[in-house]
Amino acid sequence: MDLKIITDRRCDEAIVLECIGDGVVTIDLDMRIRYMNRAMRELLGYEQDELLGQPLSCHFFVQGSICSTQDCILERAIRNREKVRNYETVIQNKEGRKIPVSLNTDLLWDETGHLIGIVETYRDLSQINELKAKLERQAHPGARGPLIGRSKALQRILDVLPQVANSKATVLIQGESGTGKELIAREIHRLSPRRDHPFVAVNCAALAEGLLESELFGHVKGAFTGAIADRPGRFEIAHKGTLFLDEIAEISPMAQAKLLRVLQEEEFERVGGNKTVKVDVRVVAATNKDLTAQTQEGRFRDDLYYRLQVFPIRVPPLRDRKEDILPLIEHCMARLNRVMGKNVRDVDGPALRVLEAHHYPGNVRELENILEHAFIRCPDHSLRLDHLPEYLTAEKRSGDERVGTSAGDAGVALADLEREAISRTLEQTDWDYRTACRRLGISRSTLLRRIKLYKMSRTGQSK
């Protein structure tokens, strides 16, 4: 008996299917949808006749990683007479929104015992996933994935990440060095339907101008000296996943033009090649620079800037979210105890007050480095003031001397403390930038900006 005849019958069973809450779809052996109940139509936003009978219509809205492969659910059902139970995947509604679902399948037979198709049932997991996330946040109020914090500023960012992750929109994360921009990018990937595909990170500032294009887009054999074989770029490696472009402001004008084309057309050519490569990649970019100013000054393409910041996220520096310092300390201490095999249980009062009062030009990365330094020096179960880096204890002494400073001079005093800490560290390291950055917990670019800001010379005195 033909499947269409079965599914078109106005019988009691069909009425029941129209009333149940789960989505139900029947598909014939040619992968054409023959029936879709009301719950499924509402979930997808399609009318009954928009998908019925269309070739490969099942693959049109099922976005699982096994679709269109030999492991496709329908292929497995036909080949192995296999049923699927509680397979979690993602479907895409008419507006392009991704919906997490649990999928079950069963086989459909005609009256003579011949397989004629499968029936699929879909259960929307959106509310269940949100409830799980809420319960997890209640159990661990300071943590969400690898991101730690209690401040309202950070919580506002974390609250919006699930919605951001559920789209393919390009995200631009802005913030100072060490604020955790890559962690946010990884969290977007972890929460997205692309989580089972690659997350590829590229530091654009770490690559010479001539190498960046090859790194991003790949090259063909003979494209330049040393190109002894075809090599895929990061875009190809990240296919169906997420590409994180850190320090995006550092890319050359030519690379900016090629990146804009990829974002708009989802295609490119390898360096030295003429074959067009199609990719499906979600791009998340990050920068510690003011891209608006860069654009106004003509150093960054305005069309690329607006294409990147479809959804902008600005991460506040640690000094503006002091509530996050204590949970970050607790998190880092737990990690360092595991890594170093120690059992440090607490931070004593004077040391904690210094940690909470510090300005943190290197943000979270600097705090992590400070604690690692203290762990190395700590012989027992408690971190004390004398275990902290010298520049922090020097700040405390300077701060004690400035107790009488008026409130109006507070901002100047804070800048003076930062300048003194950087100057002292540079003198102690004989102006070895790499060692100084490691001790201060800041990046090389941040250190150079501070040296220029405070007009510091090799002698440690102002110019």
UniProtKB/TrEMBL annotation:
GO biological process, one term: regulation of DNA-templated transcription
Alphabetic keyword roster: ATP-binding, DNA-binding, Nucleotide-binding, Transcription, Transcription regulation
SMART domains: AAA, PAS
Residue ranges annotated for the PAC domain, each copy included: 85-137
Pfam families documented for this protein: AAA_lid_14, HTH_8, PAS_9, Sigma54_activat
Record-linked InterPro entries: AAA+_ATPase, AAA_lid_NorR, Homeodomain-like_sf, HTH_Fis, P-loop_NTPase, PAS, PAS-assoc_C, PAS-like_dom_sf
Domain PAS: start-end pairs: 16-81
Domain Sigma-54 factor interaction as annotated: residue spans: 147-376
Molecular function terms from GO: ATP binding; sequence-specific DNA binding
Name of the protein: Sigma-54-dependent Fis family transcriptional regulator
Organism of provenance: Nitrospira tepida
